[in-house]
Design goal:
Blueprint lengths: L10 E4 L20 E7 L7 E10 L5 E6 L3 E6 L6 E4 L4 H12 L12 E3 L7 H13 L6 E4 L20 H10 L3 E4 L13 H5 L61 E6 L4 E5 H4 L3 H17 L20 E2 L7 H16 L5 E2 L1 E2 L8 H11 L5 E3 L15 H16 L1 H14 L4 E3 H4 L13 E3 L3 E3 L9 E6 L4 E3 L11 E6 L7 E4 L2 E6 L5 H4 L4 E6 L5 E8 L7 H4 L3 E8 L4 E9 L8 E8 L5 E6 L2 E3 L2 E2 L6 E3 L5 E2 L8 E5 L2 E3 L25 E6 L5 E7 L7 E8 L14 H6 L3 E6 L16 H13 L4 E7 L4 H11 L5 E4 L14 E2 L2 E2 L1 H11 L26 H6 L4 H8 L5 H4 L15 E8 L3 H14 L6 E9 L18 E2 L2 E2 L8 H14 L9 E5 L4 E5 L8 E8 L12 E3 L8 E6 L21 H4 L5 E4 L7 E15 L5 E9 L5 E4 L5 E4 ...
Parallel strand pairs: 7-8, 7-15, 8-9, 12-13, 14-15, 24-28, 38-39, 38-40, 40-41, 44-45, 45-48
Antiparallel strand pairs: 1-4, 2-3, 3-6, 4-5, 10-11, 16-17, 17-18, 18-22, 19-21, 20-22, 23-24, 25-26, 26-27, 28-32, 28-33, 29-30, 29-34, 31-32, 34-35, 36-37, 37-39, 42-43, 46-47, 48-49, 50-51, 50-61, 52-60, 53-59, 54-58, 54-60, 54-61, 55-56, 55-57, 55-59
Helix pairs in contact: 8-9, 15-16
Length: 1249
């Protein structure tokens, strides 16, 4: 009865009915739960709470009223039944609920997927409409786990039937959704109508002759006249508030039996003494929903073998053992949004924590702001579902504007990240009877101010939610209890305690706060729980006022029955001590096998008063970073702690220059576990400086095998830092020394501890030559040296090998960029802005001036001019290398001097082994180097190229994580099969043994490449395979190809049409692709990105047969522009049957800055309106478009900030100060000017066995 007026003596009825809600009527909504709580007061005080609470249950299923008087007193009136009272003495609030649920039954453990977001509507009208709404939400990036079908899917409302016309194919569609990780729930309304002909259940029912169970339904036809008798049962002397229905309040003419069975109806099992049913409907009416719940759950589990979910509206005491509770039909009003929070809290008290209201309201249509705010609070309901009825507007998230959609997705994204925390709370509710959602006074029972707070609530003890529940509000008045609380978004602490304070609440966020002393488990975000459960875990640590924190994690397969009883789960506790600078993890239960595939990958720390310079996790050293513009420290995607194998985990901090705590290895006797502290422990090494021919010195570390001797050597030269936990191969030192190799790693010139200045690739060849010859002169070297490394370190090998040092025997240059104007820093003439800023400022280990004020939000960069000084604006300091890049916008002598392919690789005679991936941004360069060295080499079979479904960082390790050697089985939005993984380190070992130890030559063909789609390997002598033949796929439309819903088409025959397509590119409103937030270089669904009016989209018909494409893709477009310069950007996609557009290609995008259409060595500006033939190199793919899939091409002119936004002027890229102008672009399709895709197709491909 939370927040009811207790001074007006009004009665509140409890009687289960399907009726609307209105506070004036004071009628309950579906469920009947005669249980109340009392917060006890200190004697002789002004309502000061003592901190103690008790609860009272009247276990009676008859209709009743509750009313209050100012004494204060509570009066309960019931029309009959037994007066069984149970009192729960607590004394603390959570203890009262635990005692209550111990009596009535602990709540069920919901399936994990049910904690995701649900979408529903009564009614969709047909399956096509349902599909459209599901698709648009998935395309918009709305996470979705459950799609509901309300009763309109039935055939004439007959339960367990499907409308054969409007919902034909629903079963197959639900199967498709399930395969993609989206579950489905059907809503049942198990009523019978006398006009349901040919329906067995109706035929068996008796509507007019059953005197023991008479009906009183207004809908009953004239042929059925049986009504309730006049009796004390059907017209009780005391007409409780519950007697009346909403529409009968004024005339008070209702009978208790209105819209249900007569109260005198006899029900239940037969009494053998009277030969009549034992019970009267008078006594058991409120038990109807309760009585149907367990049999429904039993049937569901018997049919599926899984945990399943039953979600009734009508519940009674103890229903939570088997079900959740749907709070029922509400109104789209701000008032009812507030009431939903009350209902959510109360049903947690009733032992049904899995509950939630219809987000955005069931009746009436919400405003956009109301729905946005409701979606934000609904994202934290235990049961989160958007549901409305057929007479209202669409209110699913994708229906609203982009700002509203972003706000909704942002809230849901936080929910998904916190699902392990939610699931652990449900585990405690299931095993201990605790609440999941609770009011503040549960945690602060002596604080009088908390008794009147019902809109601000807690998720468990550690997360406080303060939603906006008033129209137009952009601040929220919150109460800050007597604990340290930290802003979820920026880590700042609330400045006061035990006081009210106003906090900012712009439309895009819901205020959230974390409690000091908490440790919350998290998991990486994905758009449904099937995918999110594959993501690594993280921990949010919120340091308490005493420097401590604690938390726990429960995890199982999320769907099996009774995993807690069988102990088929994982449970761990975490404790943090700032004094001891330790995070200790103790695994209590370790019986969920799939936990071996999951890792703890990140830490997020709130409430540290000092900046941690170094964090050790299990003996591994990490440098935490401060999240920009916050007070939150984090280690992201680096730790790779295998939770399944670790019983204790130790975290140590170095603060400033002082050592806090000791780096130590933990052990426990008599356990089956191990720790990770020695996983990559280094052997001893020697640090020295090597003088070069120009007297600059390089800093190196070298590792030697034992016992001493002369050894072949493996060398890496890197600009990323030679120390541990850097993107280098240092972690392999122990491996190579154990196999008889010396291992040397050195800082490139001008980086780390090495001398000189870094000039992009200018000195790498000569420096590598000198270092190799120095190694060969050392007493521990046998004079045979191979090189190791990837990316820039891989390019170092090509530069060094081209110098032909006498003692270089082989190289392994994986993932190496192409020519300077083709990949980095200019990709086909377009400047890679975000790459340049991030790479120079954060990755290359060079000395930079201290950073001043930064502007990390890329949107703020759009108005900055000139581009040359954006470094200071964006990252707070001048980046000389960034400016050097911009000073050379054309292919001039600066680039010509370092262009490997322009200077030929003819001098390279040593064997090479290179790994790359279809999602590696340097794929084009790696293939180009392989092609060129084979073309120049007399020994073509000494060079090897492997292309897998890998990204830049995992390709050198064959798809495995380079630090943990764990397989990476998710790449963007696609799964990677295990047959795609290769033992790259073992292959590299065999390669080095051949080159450096004269062992057997590996029996490999020169190229090995994986074909996605069919997920099979091919090996050939050349790439692409010789059987690949060029085919053309032509663009056409009816003149409206803008966006996904446009009419752009791809077809195999040329389209001779004068129709054109146009779009306007505005440099002040580019397409935003922030690589720091979304991995656009991976195969992800980009529907949201391309569904704009300034994007032309062309889609083929679904494939009838598989189409395998292996080789380079070229896009040729006939176009004109109203501007003298602009960009053309293209994306190629595989459209899945569910509508997702999965990006293909190795780079974020493929493009051409049009001033370079005649070559990168000159700028030739366009004549507005003139038609040009533009060729864009997309690069190589190896992919099969499967039956039912479609090919899609998008054409646009921006991808900011990955690409600098072309202002469409003719000024210098670096120094242009002109205001940007809008460019109107036109694409042509005539037979003389066909726009088309050139692709290499392999018919009847032959794969490896």
């Amino acid at each position: 009865m939370l927040k009811h007026n207790v001074t007006d003596r009004k009665a509140w009825g409890i009687f289960a009915r399907d009726q609307g809600t209105d506070e004036a009527t004071r009628l309950n909504h579906y469920g009947a739960h005669p249980f109340y709580l009392v917060m006890e007061q200190l004697p002789n005080t002004d309502q000061t709470p003592s901190g103690n609470m008790h609860g009272v249950l009247l276990l009676n299923s008859n209709a009743m009223d509750y009313s209050f008087t100012p004494i204060p007193s509570l009066t309960i009136r019931t029309i009959g039944g037994i007066l069984d009272f149970f009192v729960f003495l607590g004394p603390k609030p959570e203890q009262v609920i635990q005692q209550y649920t111990w009596l009535v039954g602990h709540s069920m453990l919901p399936p994990y997927w049910s904690l995701g977001f649900h979408l529903s509507r009564w009614e969709y009208r047909n399956l096509t409409r349902m599909k459209e709404i599901v698709k648009r939400n998935r395309d918009a990036g709305v996470p979705l786990d459950v799609q509901h079908a309300d009763i309109d899917y039935m055939d004439a409302r007959k339960t367990f039937t499907i409308d054969p016309i409007n919902y034909a194919g629903m079963k197959d569609y639900f199967s498709e959704l399930n395969a993609d990780g989206v579950r489905t729930i059907i809503i049942l309304d198990p009523a019978l109508f006398d006009d349901q002909v040919s329906y067995p259940a109706t035929i068996e029912a008796v509507f007019d002759t059953n005197e023991l169970q008479p009906w009183n339904w207004e809908e009953t036809g004239s042929n059925y006249t049986l009504k309730c008798p006049i009796s004390a049962l059907d017209d009780p002397p005391y007409r409780t508030k519950a007697v009346f229905r909403y529409d009968e309040i004024l005339n008070k003419s209702s009978r208790l039996s209105q819209k249900t069975l007569c109260m005198s109806a006899q029900q239940g099992e037969i009494d053998l003494n009277t030969n009549k049913p034992k019970y009267l409907h008078y006594d058991v009416h409120n038990l109807y929903g309760w009585s149907q719940t367990k049999p429904t759950l039993d049937a569901l589990r018997a049919a599926t073998g899984k945990r399943g979910l039953v979600l009734p509206r009508s519940t009674f005491v103890g229903s939570g053992q088997w079900s959740g509770h749907w709070l029922g039909d509400n109104n789209a009003t701000w008032h009812e949004m507030k009431r939903s929070i009350i209902g959510m809290i109360e049903f947690n008290w009733f032992g049904i924590p899995f509950n939630g209201a219809d987000i955005c309201g069931y009746f009436n249509s919400p405003t956009e702001e109301m729905c946005t705010r409701w979606m934000q609070v609904g994202a934290f309901y235990p049961f989160s579902r958007n549901h409305n009825n057929r007479r209202t507007r669409d209110q699913d998230p994708a229906e609203w504007s982009q700002p509203a959609l972003r706000a909704m997705i942002s809230a849901l994204r936080i929910r998904y990240i916190l699902l392990p925390y939610y699931y652990t709370l449900f585990y405690k509710a299931h095993t201990e009877g605790s609440t999941v959602i609770r009011p503040l006074f549960h945690e602060y029972p002596t604080d009088k101010a908390t008794l009147d707070i019902f809109l601000q609530f807690l998720v468990g003890p550690y997360l406080m939610v303060a939603p906006v529940t008033d129209d137009g509000a952009r601040t929220v008045q919150i109460y800050s209890p007597s604990s340290p609380w930290y802003n979820f978004y920026d880590g700042t602490s609330i400045s006061v305690q035990s006081q009210f304070v106003s906090v900012e609440a712009p439309l895009e966020i819901i205020p959230l706060f974390l409690r000091g002393g908490a440790i919350l488990p998290t998991q990486g975000f994905a758009n449904n729980t099937k995918l999110s459960r594959m993501q690594p875990f993280g921990l949010i640590i919120v340091v308490g006022s005493d420097g401590n924190a604690e938390g726990d994690l429960f995890y199982d397969d999320g769907e099996s029955i009774d995993t807690t009883a069988s102990k088929a789960y994982y449970y761990a506790t975490f404790k943090w001590s700032l004094k001891d600078t330790q995070l200790t993890m103790t695994v209590v239960e370790n019986n969920y096998r799939e936990m071996s595939n999951l890792k703890l990958d990140s830490l997020t720390i709130y409430g540290l008063n000092h900046t941690p310079a170094v964090i050790y996790v299990g003996g591994k050293r990490f440098a935490p970073s401060l999240r920009p513009n916050t007070q939150i420290f984090e280690i992201i995607s680096k730790m790779h702690v295998i939770l399944h194998c670790v019983y204790w985990l130790l975290l140590n901090l170095f603060i400033g220059n002082d050592v806090v705590g000791n780096v130590q290895n933990l052990s426990r006797e008599n356990t089956l576990s191990t720790t990770v502290s020695n996983m990559n422990e280094e052997p001893s090494f020697v640090t020295t400086r090597v003088p070069l021919r120009d007297h600059v010195e390089l800093a190196i570390d070298y590792f030697l095998p034992t016992p001493t001797g002369r050894f072949p050597t493996i060398l890496e030269i890197t600009p990323y830092g030679r120390g541990p936990n850097k993107p280098n191969r240092r972690f392999e030192a122990r491996y190579w020394t154990q196999h008889g190799y010396a291992f040397v790693i050195g800082d490139s010139r001008g980086t780390g501890d090495s001398g000189g200045d870094m000039v992009f690739h200018a000195c790498e060849g000569k420096d590598g030559y000198d270092l190799i010859e120095w190694i060969a002169s050392q007493p521990w070297s046998n004079g045979r040296i191979g090189m190791r490394g990837a990316s820039y370190s891989g390019e170092n090998q090509w530069y060094t090998a081209r110098e032909q040092p006498p003692h270089l025997s082989c190289i392994t240059p994986s993932t190496t960029p192409a020519r300077p104007m083709n990949e980095v820093p200019y990709d086909n003439g377009a400047f890679l802005l975000q790459w340049a800023l991030l790479w120079i400022n954060s990755y290359v280990n060079i000395v930079l001036p201290p950073a001043g004020t930064t502007h990390p939000n890329p949107k703020t960069w759009l108005n900055h001019r000139p581009l040359r000084t954006l470094d200071v604006f964006a990252v707070g300091r001048e980046l000389p290398l960034y400016r050097t890049f911009l000073d050379h916008p054309t292919y001039d002598d600066f680039w010509r001097a370092i262009d490997l392919l322009a200077n030929s690789l003819v001098n390279i005679t040593v064997p090479t082994l290179a790994f790359t991936g279809w999602f590696d941004g340097t794929l084009t360069g790696t293939i180009g180097h392989f092609d060129e060295v084979r073309r120049s080499s007399p020994r073509t079979y000494d060079h090897f190229l492997i292309i897998g479904p890998y990204m830049h960082t995992s390709a050198p390790d064959g798809g495995y994580d380079y630090l943990t050697n764990e397989p990476i089985l998710m790449m963007g939005d696609i799964s990677i099969p295990k047959n795609a993984l290769l033992p790259a380190r073992n292959m590299t070992h065999a390669f080095f043994d051949w080159c450096l130890k004269d062992q057997a030559r590996p029996q490999w063909k020169p190229t090995k490449f994986f074909v996605t789609g069919t997920n099979r390997w091919m090996t050939r002598d050349v790439f692409p395979p010789p059987e690949a033949q060029e085919r053309l796929l032509f663009l056409t439309s009816n003149g409206h190809a803008n966006g996904i819903q446009g009419d752009g088409r791809l077809q195999w025959s040329s389209a001779d049409t004068t129709v054109t397509d146009r779009y306007s590119y505005d440099p002040t409103d580019p397409i935003i692709v922030d690589m720091e937030k979304i991995p656009y270089h991976l195969p992800i669904n980009i529907n949201t990105m391309i569904d704009r009016k300034d994007v032309l989209v062309y889609t083929s018909d679904p494939k009838i047969e598989s189409l395998t494409v292996i080789g380079n893709i070229v896009i040729e477009l006939q176009m004109s522009s109203s501007a003298r310069d602009s960009d053309l950007v293209v994306e190629l996609m595989d459209v899945l049957p569910d509508g997702r557009s999965i990006k293909l290609g190795s780079r974020v995008s493929s493009q051409l800055r049009l001033r370079y259409r005649d070559g990168f060595d000159q700028e030739v500006f366009m004549i507005p309106g003139t038609i040009y033939s533009i060729r864009i190199q997309l690069g190589a793919i190896g992919h099969t478009f499967l039956p039912g899939h479609r090919i899609r091409l998008a054409v646009m002119s921006s991808l900011f900030p990955w690409l600098s936004a072309n202002p469409n002027t003719d000024g210098s890229i670096a120094t242009d100060m002109q205001q940007p102008i809008v460019a109107n672009q036109t694409i042509y399709y005539t037979a003389c000017q066909p726009s088309h895709i050139r692709m290499m197709v392999v018919d009847n491909p032959v794969f490896d066995l």
